[in-house]
Amino acid sequence: MKRIGIVGAGAIARTHADRIKKMPGIELAGYYDIFPEAAQRAVEQYGGKVYPSLNALLGDVDYVDICTTANAHKEPVLAALEAGVPACVEKPLARHLADCYEIVEAQARTGTPLFVAQVVRFFPQFAAAKASLERGDIGAPGTIRTVRGGSPPGGGGWGSAGSARTYYNDFDKSGGVILDVSIHDIDYQRWCFGEVERVFARGLRFAGKNPKDHALISLRFENGAIGHIEGSWAYPAGLWRTRIEMAGTAGLIEWDSLDSQPVEWRIQPDADSPPSSGAASPLADTDDPYYREIAHFIDAVENHKPMGVTAYDGLMAVKISLAAIESQRRGEAVRIDGFEEAN
What we know:
- The strands form 3 sheets. Strands 12-11-7-10-9-8-15 form a 7-stranded mixed beta sheet. Strands 3-2-1-4-5-6 form a 6-stranded parallel beta sheet, with helices on both faces.
- It is α/β, with parallel strands linked by helices.
- It is about 35% helix and about 25% strand.
- Strand 5 (about 85-90), helix 5 (about 95-110) and strand 6 form a beta-alpha-beta unit.
- It is built from 11 helices and 15 strands.
- About 45% of the residues are buried.
């Protein structure tokens, strides 16, 4: 039985804990959070224990899952690497590019396995589109367009909704919709089409519309292909949408989360009862993307396989995201080669 500990006790930690509890041969050891009461609430829901310090957790587990806010990733990631504890870290790798470089250097120097949880690579629809592209089903890639958006965030997890809203509304901490949401699509498009030459972006970040944020991003890949990304925190409450379109010289791939679910039902037990309806996916636990990414991380460590998302991949996703934010600020395209984050 291998033991995994979680650092952080917010919404994404709850998502990860739920999946970890379903994994055979894995024990959820417990949690460390700078707010012990949040860690205690996590223990009450999923078991384990509250660790008094990061070092105490690292000394008691086989793996660590870092689920803090982005601006607090660097310290636990570096501590895990130096302690030789294989680490999974939620995206983005870090809030700032300099921190990403420091993490990449530490990983290379220590050799400690590090996985960056860019979960979109593990969604069945997005993984199937990538596999189809690699088989040559649509010929040479030409364009890719992805959409990911919902209402402004700020609830869930074992912490308070108010603290979550405060974090996401603070651009200096969260990086806004591009670094929190569109980074998924930036990573996915780079995974599919290769390195990015330049980025151009427009949006609401600097328009004084907080907490609403919306971005339109264009990527020019080194192979000449074009990527389009729409990321949003401006949708009505309760609405969440993702979409992918990929076009090549021989075909088109597309999928939209607004399409009908695989299983739908409408039930009326008797004439006097109101009808009920619903929809669900018949996917097994092992098909869940969050389960799949954590299982991939553990399998890669145990069997000495390459990580599906490396520290360098995490760095490049942050770099392109920050360049997109800078493009919004400047009102012009920004080249990725040579880009460094402004102080």
